[in-house]
Amino acid sequence: MNVLINRAIQCFLRDVWGMGVWCDVARAAGLSPRGFEPLLDYPADLTHHLLAAASVRLNRGRDDLLEDLGTYLVSHPSRAAVRRLLRFGGISFHDFLQSLEDLPARARLALPELALPDLRLEHPAADLFRLSIAPGFIGAGPVALGLLRAMADDYGALVLLEPEGMDTDGAAVLTIRLLDATHGEGRAFVLGAL
Amino acid sequence: MTTFPFELCPEALLRLMPMHLALDHDGLILSAGATLNRLMGEGGLVGARFADHFDLRHEAGAATVPGLLATSGARLQLGARGRADLAFRGLAVPMGPGEGALVNLSFGIGVVEAVRRFALTEADFAPTDLTVELLYLYEAKTAVLDELRALNARLQGDKVVAEEQALTDALTGLRNRRGLDLAAEVVADPDFALVHLDLDLFKQVNDEMGHAAGDHVLLVVARILREESRKGDTVARIGGDEFVILMPGLTDPAAALTRVERIIARLSEPIDYADAQARIGASAGVVLSSTADGADMTRLLAQADAALYVAKRAGRGRAFLWGPDMAVE
């Protein structure tokens, strides 16, 4: 994941907060504002420096930023490819949730170096899902929260998302209550758009 | 062999195979998958004749049920009559003794194009079909390639900048013009000779023996110049076949000319290349900083260049020392 996360943070800061903020954060983290190239590996602790610097610069909690990053990945026009690839997960939000366990394998198909944490989905009640994220990927919980929220919007589903637990090692449990699967219009998705 | 007779209701068949055709023994279409119906348009396929809508590639005249079944379950390649844009792969099996054939079709490799052209959705494929995964992979591949293309463009830009900033000539490893200027700035000894050397007959080598031969000759020239240089000297290639040598510590014109003439003599020896020999030579203009009244590097190079011009005019293989009588641009 390292190959993409730094670049994603860079694009997020640049696209959402502006070039100036990105440059400030990069300098504070000891980086050239030129930033990261996709698909190249960087030292693991760089991500932490980057997030810490962004947190200070924007005066926002790290988890808040990560949640926004998750939303950005799905909803921002510059990340259209990510949103499309996620939408291949199913024709409804319900379907999409059920495909989440396949997400790490799907990611590996796209990019063998892309190691996502293992995901487990339980379905304890008709409208209730519980997503468990395996440890190892710090910040995965908040990112998933933002990403799922944006995906629900994308499908036009009304959901209640809540973190049930988040550990410092990256493990997290999220509950997803599907209140109305067809609450809104959602965004169109056609298979053969490319 | 135990037989295992069972019946499939039409709805089950439709869900299982959205691109199937059930044919009676005469080739009349009894049932057709919804996706196939959508593609072929115009009122649906049921009741029509298979042979009126489909033909078999590579199997002349086999669009009959016996013809289909004679393929014994091998892969079929089918076309749609009058529709050059549609091609299928398929499989035909008998439905029962004397009861016609069940044919299942798919798009094969043309699926990405077909999904786009006919605006197919997930519902057009059976849930077991991996078409959606194939489309996912296609998009993932495209997205990764786009990123890589952008990355390559940035790296290419970096490379151009790096080359501009480099101090060495990429072919010979000698200093380039920038490298020469930098060496001149830091030369500690105020007295030095500056030699501007130009190869004779190099263009002919390039024209007659090819650029690979030309490159080889340049490499040999570079090696000779390195061998002939002394500690503290700087050798630079500043143009296609132009070289400059900075020789610190030289104030004696005769000594400078002796060194340069020795270099020219070595450069005039034939150079082996493949089964042939390249013959070049060199002319040189030399200027001594001690005779130039504190002229700067640019001026000294212009003086050496003026001396080189005179040397070239005097015939090949000559070295001339700059004198005040020589015009300087």
TrEMBL record, chain A:
<dbReference type="Pfam" id="PF07700">
    <property type="entry name" value="HNOB"/>
</dbReference>
<protein>
    <submittedName>
        <fullName>Heme NO-binding protein</fullName>
    </submittedName>
</protein>
<dbReference type="InterPro" id="IPR038158">
    <property type="entry name" value="H-NOX_domain_sf"/>
</dbReference>
<feature type="domain" description="Heme NO-binding">
    <location>
        <begin position="4"/>
        <end position="152"/>
    </location>
</feature>
<dbReference type="InterPro" id="IPR011644">
    <property type="entry name" value="Heme_NO-bd"/>
</dbReference>
<dbReference type="InterPro" id="IPR024096">
    <property type="entry name" value="NO_sig/Golgi_transp_ligand-bd"/>
</dbReference>
